[in-house]
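Data card: per-record layout.
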Amino acid sequence: MHDPIERRKFDKEFKKRAVRLVIDGGRPATAVARELGINASMLHRWKREYHQDRDGSFPGKGHLSEADEEMRRLKKENNELKEERDILKKAVAFFAKHPD
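The structure for this 100-residue chain is written out next.
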């Protein structure tokens, strides 16, 4: 049996520094990746994520970007409002049948 390979985890600052070495340093991502001991395709992905949303890039596991967090909050609120509406509909139907 093989031991499971432990995945390395990189924090937000490490990712940003690695991307900045490529962007500001004008160095090839493959060279920077080799020096840092990471896969070049991973560094390319980080660079792409960084360009898409600099401030919101690399939110971390379990952390959502502001837009995603707002979407989650609004969906939750929408579901709660639907439940309240359904309860009120049932109450109206009940009292319409039993006016006393």
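Known properties of this structure: The chain has two domains: 8-60, 64-100. Residues 50 and 57 are 5 Å apart (CA to CA).

See the next section for split statistics.
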